[in-house]
Specification:
single chain; 7-stranded mixed sheet; 6 helices; two-stranded parallel sheet; alpha/beta
């Protein structure tokens, strides 16, 4: 009885600590605000969430799902000093210039890809966020990976989204958040997520975004 009471007390303390955690979040290259989705699933309360994104379709999805997120626009013109004291900086600068999917991709950090990444570094320096999480494509050149590691002071952790989804998607994560472990494999296959029909493969690669040409700019 004494052990059970002590265990329940410790569990209650942990629950209280978890409930007391609230985050002020700065998100760069925010997309559709999947960072907010992840924080919700981790049951971490978000006090404020400021997003930098320029794709109008991504912004519209974010605003539909999370109207309280503050959309701030272009990272290249941002003053990140106003986020002093924020808890978490997240983001993944576009891999468009670095990925093996691009012909004549950049293999050194002095191109456009590197310039965009350095705005993440600037945001970290100017805001002084306690925690950071940066993501990019596993296929980027080793020169780029080394440069990112030097700038952020940590080595990347590779996680394949195939562990959690029906998609093959290797990504590198640079973070100072401690005790990161590989997710448990959920064993999901393409067949598991199809509403009808049969799949010709167990796992899929990501599909490209394609905006219909008849979409209006308004």
């Amino acid at each position: 009885y004494k052990f059970s009471k002590q265990r329940n007390s410790e569990q209650g303390r942990r629950n209280e600590e978890q409930e007391s955690v609230t985050m002020n979040v700065l998100s760069l290259f925010d997309g559709i605000s999947c960072g907010m989705v992840a924080l919700e699933r981790a049951e971490i309360a978000v006090e404020s969430y400021y997003a930098y994104e320029i794709d109008k379709y991504a912004i519209s999805v974010s605003q539909k799902n999370y109207p309280r997120i503050v959309q701030c626009g272009d990272v290249t013109t941002a003053d990140f000093t106003k986020y002093k004291g924020f808890d978490l900086l997240i983001g993944g600068s576009p891999c468009t210039y670095w990925s093996v999917a691009k012909n004549n991709r950049e293999i050194t950090p002095d191109g456009i890809g590197g310039q965009l990444f350095m705005h993440y570094v600037r945001a970290l320096d100017e805001s002084g966020c306690k925690w950071f999480l940066y993501e990019n494509n596993y296929s980027i050149h080793k020169n780029i990976k080394t440069f990112i590691s030097e700038q952020l002071g940590v080595e990347p952790i590779m996680i394949n989204s195939a562990l959690l989804s029906a998609q093959q998607r290797k990504r590198c994560y640079w973070t100072n958040i401690p005790n990161i472990v590989q997710p448990v494999d959920k064993g999901l296959l393409v067949q598991d997520i199809l509403e009808s029909g049969l799949s010709w493969q167990d796992k899929s690669y990501c599909m490209k975004a394609c905006y219909h040409p008849t979409f209006s700019d308004t």
